[in-house]
Design goal:
globular; Rossmann fold; 16% strand; homodimer; 13 helices; six-stranded mixed beta sheet; alpha/beta; four-stranded parallel beta sheet
């Protein structure tokens, strides 16, 4: 297969790097991005070529960095459904409200996309041991794909990471460790160990290929809405890889001439207890500060400091979007409401976007005429330990006594 | 849209029933099946029409019993991936081993298919309250789709049903009850309550539409293997709706002239601690007896008595397949092995089929030249409470001390 992979580049200082050797950050400390030969790609491939392939992430292979077919690791990732939330749309005074459900990915979250591409490329580059800190789900996903690739994986999680993700990571055979504290403490342990043992660090944005996997969410949205993109896309923002990836996808499609018309307004949603990017957005800053005392039930967005903060802020601002917070109470309430009215048991992070949609309508930041897409990043069934209501025991074994 | 739905019929006594009124069993106590006008369908629709629609269950709408678009309830069910298990194939001496992963359905199991169609048709027929006994996953799935449909749902589970499925059913707003004992005890409670309160009973095969949803697994296999069906399909058999449905699908396609050549050999896999159908198969019987003292860690196949036993036995025999058991130890071992070698964390029921594949090769019942497809019915992350290995706590917070 022809590859259109060209080079890696730093979005801050513009230094370029060889994409055929393992790379972490730019020398200036900035995450690297992947550049393709988009002109040649647009001349040699058409959207019809993609559409004829089975749904899923690898349908977009020409715009992905994995070159050899045997490294396109697949457990059925991507091709996730979009469905409408008509009842909730009515309640919020919206004509069109959609949800893209990443919970139907293998390992139950959108992290599978980043892992499929990140691990596939790591295999292609000959890497033998990968290590990462994680809030839980990325660890589970990377454990799955490294198992498939035959690569050794070391995962470090906060002690209170969701139990399901701990068990998954272990089950896939990754060396799985817990630390007291936050994901930043797990990050420190991984950094030290990589320096000492020569493992390749794959923490969020410390390598350039995870974004490429996440980017496919944007490619799918473009296909699924067939030339009529939603006006607003809400994304629960922890490390921010998904929003950076989707924004990159939309712009690559635009550069290739495959996407015309305005791009969606990108909205970054964070929890009130951990909102570094919202704070920076409101203060007009280009970078976020470390958020002290980070606290929220939505573990995936409990990220006090994100390497890609400046890219998230750029996507939000350039797209004409916004950044806002919701409280844990609002998350829990929206979570329960969506399951009981729409039959959608999403993840707490996705529920944060449902609550944020309500706020955007109440404040008038989104009009009733605008179409809104919520990105749900994971399956609710991974978080049932957070649900308080229980089934009732029928002591007599009968419902008619 | 034109409908090809014709009537319901009893596969035992051939009595026919009106498909436009709610129906449970035939008067003779047998599950009813759905009949379509296949000749007219084959004349008016083509496989290309299906292929052009987005992947998922409703792509096959002409061969499904839901007529009006608004009753085609969707949370993104179906369109599940098939991927190869090359390492395990090598170990077992098979050239081609595939897994179809139903774990990527909403609610994490193949039960979503039966629920989407069963609840959709119940809505279309104006039913207000549904009730079912369940090992867990069917309850979660029907709770999700009744929530979406705005229909009241009552779910009764054994007290030891997987915790995740209990929590899901409650979260979706179903009235969820636990009974001491087995699914047969839950069944008794539901039967009594339906008789007293006029609820519509949707226990396995007590209504004819769940099979139609499950049938779409067969339609997808036919599409995914493009005229070159696997030689052998292994299915973990509890109530047996999936194997009955797939067999019905293959035969409908054959009757329409859309499928040529031999059909796959259908293999029913059960646990040694609950094997009514395997026992009947070995004894040459057409029906199974109640299996006393049913016991297995794979809750989905802990079904001591199945209404559709005779249909499962028919599919197995007519297809030239077989029925066999595996022990819980073999299930656990295959489960762990698949996660660690292929990156696939499937459900214990699916793992039973992996273990059974090994046995079929060891006994020579499947040759190295035959292609084998394992039907994995659910996501492993719903069963992490069964996994014994744990993550290790880094007391010092460091990996390099």
């Amino acid at each position: 297969m022809a590859t259109y992979l060209k080079e890696l580049y730093c979005p801050k200082c513009n230094t370029t790097y060889d994409a055929y050797r393992p790379q972490n950050l730019c020398e200036c400390g900035t995450p690297l991005l992947v550049r393709y030969d988009l002109e040649r790609l647009a001349g040699e491939v058409t959207p019809q070529v993609w559409r004829k392939r089975p749904e899923g992430l690898w349908r977009y292979r020409e715009l992905l960095p994995v070159i050899r077919e045997e490294n396109m690791l697949s457990l059925g990732e991507g091709g996730t459904p979009v469905y409408s939330l008509d009842k909730v749309a009515g309640e919020y005074g919206l004509k069109k409200l959609f949800l893209k459900d990443e919970g139907t990915n293998p390992t139950g979250t959108f992290k599978a996309r980043g892992a499929a591409v990140g691990v596939g490329r790591a295999k292609e580059l000959g890497l033998k041991t990968l290590a990462m800190p994680t809030a839980g789900n990325a660890g589970a996903a990377w454990a799955a794909y490294t198992s498939r690739a035959g690569i050794k994986m070391v995962v470090v999680m906060p002690e209170d990471a969701p139990l399901t993700t701990q068990a998954e990571s272990v089950a896939y055979g990754a060396d799985t460790y817990l630390v007291k504290g936050l994901i930043s403490d797990a990050g420190k342990a991984v950094r030290e160990a990589c320096a000492k043992y020569g493992w390749f660090e794959v923490a969020t944005l410390k390598e350039p290929y995870r974004i490429e996997g996440k980017k496919t969410m944007g490619l799918e949205i473009w296909e699924q809405f067939e030339g009529n993109l939603p006006d607003v896309v809400l994304y629960p923002t922890g490390g921010g890889v998904g929003i950076i990836g989707m924004w990159k996808a939309f712009n690559e499609l635009k550069d290739m001439g495959w996407l015309k018309g305005p791009l969606p307004k990108m909205v970054a949603v964070q929890a009130e207890g951990c909102a570094p990017i919202v704070k920076a957005y409101k203060e007009g800053k280009d970078k976020a500060e470390f958020f002290q005392g980070a606290q929220t039930i939505a573990a995936g967005i409990r990220v006090p400091s994100a390497l890609g903060d400046f890219l998230v802020l750029e996507a939000v601002r350039k797209s004409g979007g916004t950044a806002l917070t919701v409280t844990d109470e609002e998350i829990l309430s929206a979570w329960s409401h969506l399951a009981k009215t729409e039959g959608a048991l999403i993840c707490p992070e996705g529920a944060a976007c449902v609550a944020a949609t309500k706020k955007l309508r109440e404040t008038g930041l989104v009009s009733s005429e605008e179409s809104v897409l919520i990105l749900n990043t994971g399956a609710g069934m991974k978080y049932t330990e957070l649900l308080k209501e229980k089934a009732k025991l029928l002591e007599t074994g009968s419902l008619v006594d």
